Amino acid sequence: MVFADYGGTTRNARTEAFLKPFGEEFGVNTVSADADPAKLQLFAENKKAEWDLIDMDNWDVARFSKEGLLEKLPADVKRVDGVPKQYQEYASGGYTAVTGFGYRTGEGPTPKTWADFFNTEKFPGKRALPDFAYFQIEAALLAEGESCDQLYPLNFKKGFEKLDKIRNDVLFYDSFGQAVQYLAQGSVSMALIPNSRVVFLEEQELPVAYNWNEGFYEWTAAVVPKYAPHPEAAFALVNYMAQPEPQAEFSRLTKYGPTNSKALAGLTPETKESLPNAHEKEACTVNPAGLGAEEEKYGELYTEWLAQG
Question: What is the pLDDT confidence band of residue 284, given thresholds at 50, 70 and 90?
Fold first, then answer.
């Protein structure tokens, strides 16, 4: 089978926690490929998919399930409580994540909010932002006093005006690995980044910490695209990925959280404290349908903003 994902640490951990043991138990070999959700429409038009599964963010699950581009999971595939009921028909397995900001410690007051992230006078230093649309507007709106539950539809004008104010203090990165490098070497004082990347820097005893407050809490899932080549084997893998033991192992390896809450019982208190699940109440829960409806426009506008240089 072919599992499409976004590479990096999650690909390696997925192989170790899910794909290898599943293959050993069921005799099915699964290889990884680079994901591009935009291809799902092409798969449907050709009635032939290149992948059997894809690691999918919750807003893409909302979008593509609505468009009829995902296979429904059979009843015997385990559902997980970390995926809301309205999406459990299409999505299981996966993990939880928070996108907040990492920061350098020992260099002045401790930043605690997105307003602090955007305040370069009180909290001097460069900021790291991705060169792809990824919660920048939401962060800017929270910094302007918007509430978590009223972010969507996004006020792009207000958000980009806030981003304009720090643009000269921003280093843009093209991968989370590059963002980690910027933060580790002190090129930036803060970086918008997923939680697991900073947890590993902390474990190396580098002078960095993570701000969970107002981070964006989301779940991802393993989904099966329409016209997957091996749907029955894909459903079996999704079911395996939803079980507590492999979910717990994935969390140990990545510091992303399980979507099956029963997996938490198999983790140490220290590991559980480092996971998004322990900080959900501090974070802003992402609205999958709200962000899914904005996704294409978001990407286009952010690309235009970057091009303005």
Answer: very high
